[in-house]
Amino acid sequence: MITIKKDLDTITSILHQTFELPPFKRDYDSAFGKIADILKRYGIVESARNLRFRFILCMQEFFDSIPEEQWKTKDPTFIKESEEFSTNKFREWIIEQIT
Questions:
Q1: In this predicted model, what pLDDT tens digit does every residue of 35-74 receive, in sequence order?
Q2: How many CB atoms lie within 10 A of CB 66?
Q3: 28-39: b or e for each residue (b if 16 or more CB lie within 10 Å)?
Q4: pTM here?
């Protein structure tokens, strides 16, 4: 269980490091490729593209929970909140796949 926690923390760190970069400098393929490599240890064989799509679905869940007129896409705090929500949902999905 310690390894799973450590790997989940590594995945979270990868995502946080990616989001720290300006959007036009982010290398999503590399980030989700690293995550795919970690998940292979648990028998989860997904391409970086599929994992990125899964993450986008998690982010969509955040935006679906808020009326569109309340979206603050220019507000860094709002964007950070969406990233954190998505990261947590993505982690939950990974845990479901492992257990």
A1: 999 999 999 999 999 999 999 999 999 999 999 999 999 9
A2: 13
A3: eeebbbbbbebb
A4: 0.90
